[in-house]
């Protein structure tokens, strides 16, 4: 995992994309997080940490055809669901400007179109790659975040 500095904010948890991935889907997730009432107000975000965890995955049969967007539907999709964990480090509005941390967890769900010649005895190994993170303070109590991630699956 690497870190990226944009403006005054350091983003941690961004991965380099794997090469030669055959089965994948890119998704964007937006979230607005409210700082818990026991925490002080935000003056400035300093660091953002993100990680993803797959909780469940399963292969489902779907229609065969071509979608309106032009995607070829093979009859099989891998549904992937999990959780994104984010940690926000921020400077408070208090006179001494201490640094505080707030945590956020939220679910995601996505799918990957699988090959049409999928063997029903195959094993799938899904993975998450966080490609980009962007966060900003919307007011003294809320943080807007968007995460771009790739869901991929190895089939054995």
Tags for this model:
mainly beta, 0% helix
Secondary-structure-based class equals mainly beta
Largest sheet: 5 strands, mixed
The helix tally amounts to 0
Distance between the termini: 26 Å
From the alpha-carbon coordinates, what is the Rg to the nearest angstrom? 19 Å
Q: What is the total tally of β strands?
A: 8
Poorly predicted runs of 5 or more residues: none
What's this entry about, in short?
This protein is mainly β. It has strands at 2-6, 9-14, 24-34, 42-66, 72-92, 99-113, 124-139, 142-155.
Give an account of the 3D structure.
Helix content is 0%, strand content 72%. It is mainly beta and 156 residues long. The protein is elongated, with a radius of gyration of 19 Å.
Topology:
Layout: E1 2-6, E2 9-14, E3 24-34, E4 42-66, E5 72-92, E6 99-113, E7 124-139, E8 142-155
Parallel strand pairs: 2-4
Antiparallel strand pairs: 1-2, 3-8, 4-5, 5-6, 7-8
């Amino acid at each position: 995992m690497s870190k990226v500095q944009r403006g005054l904010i350091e983003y941690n948890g961004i991965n380099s994309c794997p090469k030669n991935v055959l089965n994948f889907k890119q998704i964007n997730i937006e979230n607005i997080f409210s700082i818990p009432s026991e925490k002080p107000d935000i003056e400035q975000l300093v660091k953002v940490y993100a990680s993803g965890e797959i909780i469940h995955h399963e292969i489902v049969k779907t229609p065969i055809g071509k979608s309106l967007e032009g995607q070829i539907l093979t009859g099989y999709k891998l549904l992937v669901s999990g959780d994104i964990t984010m940690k926000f480090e921020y400077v408070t509005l208090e006179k001494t400007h201490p640094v505080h941390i707030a945590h956020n967890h939220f679910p995601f769900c996505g799918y990957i179109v699988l090959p049409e010649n999928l063997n029903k005895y195959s094993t799938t190994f899904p993975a998450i790659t966080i490609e980009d993170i962007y966060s900003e303070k919307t007011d003294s109590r809320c943080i807007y975040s968007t995460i771009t991630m790739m869901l991929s699956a190895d089939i054995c």
